[in-house]
Every structure is written in C-alpha cells, then in structure tokens.
C-alpha cells in the first residue's frame, strides 16, 4: 500500500519560481511510491484539517510565513505525521539553519532521502514560531514590505523598507524575566531565536547554536540616549559584539516579558500582535522534520 503525502504549496512565495518545479517534485514523490495530494495555501484559511492525520508525511512549500502558518496548524493535530519543508520564499531563515537546499527539487530529494530531526520550536502565548520572535527596530519590515516588492527585489526590498523606518525607531520600557534572572531597562529591539540565520544573515557564533537543545538565544538592545551611543550600538550590532554595554545576550528556555505600552511583535516575519505581556516557552524537540 502506498504511503500518502499532503503537499501544501504557496505558489506566490519568493518570486513564484516554485511553480517551475512543482511537476518535477510531484513526479519525484510519485516515483518514491507516495500517493500525493496537493493543496494551495491561503493565509486567511485553515490549510490543515483534523482528518489530515491520515497522511504519512506533510510537506510545506513556501516562505517562512507559509511555514509558520503550517506549523501552527500542524501542532493542533492530535496525531502528527512526519513533516517536510521545501523553502520557496525570499529569505528562508529556518531552512538555512537546518542546512536545507534552496533548490526546491533538491530539497524535495532531501526529504525523500533524509532522516528525522526533532527540532525545537517556540510557543508565544498561544502561537507557535519556528525560529524568531522579535520586537522593535526594523521588525515591522518583514510584514510591512509588500509581497510584490519582495518578488521583484528580493532581500533589497527589506533593506529599502528598513531605511524608511529609521526616523520612527521607538523605545520600550520592559521587564524581562527568564530562567536565569530578570532585566528591566529601555530597549529599542529584542529577538528570541532558535536559528543560526535571521533576516537572511548568518550569525557569527552559530557553532554555539543548537536547534534541539531546548534553549533560545536572546538578544536585547538598549535604547540610545544620544547620537554617540546610537553609533556605538550600531557598531556593536554590525560586529556582533555580545559583550557590549548596550546589548544583553543570554540563553533561556522561557521568558515572561511585560511592558508599559503595547509592543508590536513579529513571529517568523509575520505580524504576531501588539501586546503588553507575553510568555515565551521553548517546546523542546516538538517538530519532527525530515532533514539532510
């Protein structure tokens, strides 16, 4: 009896180049003795249903936002099939961290020939994220950049949108409680990650980052009081200096973050809501994904 694949596809991801590979990918799955059901994803709809537990494998094809939606729906299933991911977006941070091929057909072959990796994911209040929850400077760029601009310009579209936001950088007074203590200060940026790539850029100390250790990597950037401090902070970020007086970095399995005002959050590049209080928990090895 043939095994069954549910193939979730976002045909608009990236520059829509995934469309050129679809028939070859489906042919590959079929030759590996799988029965394939295809389903186009819609951002405003539930793309996974309760009876999708019948499949042996669910494969998601799209960008980080498509993956985020699929994982949130996947985690609601009582009996979860194996999971596969074919990156097809503009940035594809999660795929880069796992070492997945950016070529869709090669990524499909990796799924067919790969092994199961039990990967950590994050729980942000009641929403899941695969690799990053962030607030503050430039985090709105990912979900405010128009899809058409992403398709035409690629990563340059994010940079252009970021430059537009420079005059509007805000400061937030925040209390951060984590497993190793607490911090209270004014911050312009914060990110909680489970990834060696964020925004398409590789993190220098990626040898210390493990996607199955039950720990997040946390970066909090303090607010600058003057232009000199702002330049020092920019230099620290550009050189990824973890021991800067303006940047807190640490590892933790959970956080409780409280602010005096609503803070807009981004989860895997998608809008995560404007909130004054959030609880973030590392769900250790919760996603069984096929990798190289």
Detailed description of the structure:
The chain is an alpha+beta fold. It has 2 domains: 3-113, Probable inorganic polyphosphate/atp-NAD kinase, domain 1 (Rossmann fold, 3-Layer(aba) Sandwich); 127-285, Tumour Suppressor Smad4, CATH 2.60.200. Helix content is 24%, strand content 40%. It has 8 helices and 15 strands. It has helices at 22-31, 64-74, 93-98, 104-113, 141-144, 147-153, 155-165, 227-238, and strands spanning 3-9, 34-40, 57-62, 82-87, 115-124, 127-129, 132-136, 172-178, 181-193, 197-198, 201-202, 216-222, 247-252, 254-267, 270-291. The strands form 3 sheets. Strands 5, 6, 7, 8, 9, 12, 13, 14 and 15 form a 9-stranded antiparallel sheet that branches. The protein has a 4-stranded parallel sheet with strand order 2-1-3-4, with helices on both faces. Helix 2 (64-74) links the parallel strand 3 (57-62) and strand 4 (82-87). Helix 1 packs parallel to helix 4 (104-113) and helix 6 (147-153) packs across helix 7. The protein starts with a strand and ends with a strand. The relative contact order is 0.17. Residues 149-163 have low confidence and may be disordered. InterPro entries: ATP-NAD_kinase_N (IPR017438), Diacylglycerol/lipid_kinase (IPR005218), Diacylglycerol_kinase_cat_dom (IPR001206), Lipid_Phosphate_FormReg (IPR050187), NAD/diacylglycerol_kinase_sf (IPR016064). Its cofactor is Mg(2+).
């Amino acid at each position: 009896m043939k095994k069954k694949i549910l193939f979730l596809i976002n045909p608009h991801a990236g520059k829509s180049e995934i469309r050129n590979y679809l028939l070859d990918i489906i042919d590959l799955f079929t030759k590996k003795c799988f029965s394939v059901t295809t389903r186009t994803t819609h951002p405003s709809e539930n793309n996974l249903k309760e009876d999708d537990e019948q499949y042996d494998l669910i494969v998601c094809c799209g960008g980080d936002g498509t993956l985020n939606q699929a994982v949130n729906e996947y985690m609601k299933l009582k009996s979860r099939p194996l999971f596969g991911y074919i990156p097809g977006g503009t940035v594809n941070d999660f795929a880069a961290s796992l070492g997945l091929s950016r070529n869709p057909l090669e990524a499909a072959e990796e799924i067919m020939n790969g092994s199961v990796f039990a990967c950590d994911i994050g729980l942000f209040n009641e929403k899941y994220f695969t690799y990053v929850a962030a607030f503050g400077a430039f985090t709105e760029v990912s979900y405010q950049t128009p899809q058409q601009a992403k398709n035409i310009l690629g990563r340059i579209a994010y940079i252009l949108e970021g430059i537009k936001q420079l005059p509007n950088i805000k400061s937030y007074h925040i209390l951060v409680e984590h497993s190793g203590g607490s911090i209270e200060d004014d911050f312009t940026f914060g990110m909680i990650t489970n990834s060696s790539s964020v925004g398409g850029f590789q993190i220098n100390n990626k040898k210390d980052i493990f996607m199955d250790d039950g720990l997040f990597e946390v970066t909090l950037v303090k607010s600058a009081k003057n232009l000199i401090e702002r330049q020092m902070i920019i230099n620290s970020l550009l050189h990824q200096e973890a021991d800067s007086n303006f940047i807190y970095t640490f590892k933790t399995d959970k956080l409780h973050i409280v602010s005096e005002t609503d803070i807009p959050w981004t989860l895997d590049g998608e809008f995560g809501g404007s909130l004054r209080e959030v609880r973030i928990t590392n769900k250790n090895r919760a996603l069984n994904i096929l990798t190289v």
